[in-house]
Amino acid sequence: MSHLPKPDQQIRLIQLPDKLPGKDVKMELKVNTFELSEKPKYHALSYTWGPAIRESAPARLRPEEFVHLERPASDLGIFCNGQEVHITQSLLEGL
Asked: What are phi and psi of 30, to 5 degrees?
């Protein structure tokens, strides 16, 4: 995905489907760009991209030694603007 042309004046929002898909159907999302002046209404979900690391990891471990406790699984994919994206279980549940 390319950078926003006017990052201080625009925001990207993900549009969720009106109806959740069945168990064996992958969710289809759309990313739309809005001008902040439009004041689009939205709900926020806080999420950190990248490997999941539990806060309970022992302090003596260096970051590169952490075991990634939550990994994207091949069956945890969604479609975003027509492209498949693999996500973690916690993000899927949040959506």
From this structure: -125, 140
- 2-12 pLDDT tens trace: 788 898 999 99
3-class secondary structure, 16: coil
* Overall size of the chain counted in residues: 95
Q: Which two tokens stand for residue 6?
A: 């006017």
Is residue 19 in a domain? yes
Query: CA–CA separation, 52 vs 18, rounded Å?
Result: 29
Rounded Cα distance, 38 and 13, in Å? 13
Is the residue at 48 inside a domain? Answer: no
- Domain holding 27, by residue range, is 1-40+62-95
pLDDT tens-digit map of 19-69: 777 776 788 889 999 999 999 998 888 776 655 555 555 555 555 544 444
